[in-house]
Amino acid sequence: MDSSDCLTILGNDGAESKIGIRERLGGVYGILLFAAGNGSLEMELVELVPPATISVLWQMPQFTVMALGECVVGHTALQFAYSQASASMKSAITCIYLFTALLGNVINVGILSIKMAESSLSHMIKSLIYTILLFLDFAVFVWVASGYIYVDVQETPEEVELLGGEETTGSPSVNQA
Which residue ranges run through the membrane (predicted)? Predict the structure, then answer.
């Protein structure tokens, strides 16, 4: 056994005790130490969580797509809200946007904490709940958007001065030459 695969513990009497460790990625292990009848120190390696059978790296594409989507959607939503709000409401709009993100996370935690037997049926039920919420959200969005009238907000002279002297109309990302 290689010395890198061993854990060495020095006892009170100066005797070394070694335990072989064969840990694998994703597993959680514990070491039980106890005094034997003859006064020596005994150790036992206990596997608390079995090692992973699938690499964690398989999650990278999903997290990458989710992060890019969050950047695109978050930026677009805040740009729209910020361009349509008056100067006195811009920080309140940002607060409301972040609060809705919080509510979404709370709903997600609530759904994930539903205690069900671990089976494909429980995963199907949770997926069905997410699908129903998605369509409800879409219906509310269409209902709110159908009555929305786009407002062309003009900046006050103070805002124009803060923006560097260029006045924008409605869409701050479009610069006309």
Answer: 96-116, 128-151
- How do residues 115-159 score in pLDDT, each as one tens digit? 766 666 678 888 899 999 999 999 998 998 898 888 776 666 666
Pairing relationship of beta strands 6-10 and 16-20 according to DSSP bridges: antiparallel
65 lies in the same domain as 44? no
Of 149, 150, 146, 172, the C-alpha closest to 159 is 172
Of 90, 113, 136, the last residue of a domain is 113
Q: Which domain holds residue 90?
A: 57-113
pLDDT in tens, 18-36: 666 677 777 888 878 777 7
Query: Concatenated DSSP letters for 111-168?
Result: HHT----SSHHHHHHHHHHHHHHHHHHHHHHHHHHHT-----PBPPHHHHHHTTS---
Query: Is 175 among the domain residues?
Result: no
- The CA-to-CA distance between both ends of the chain, in Å, stands at 73
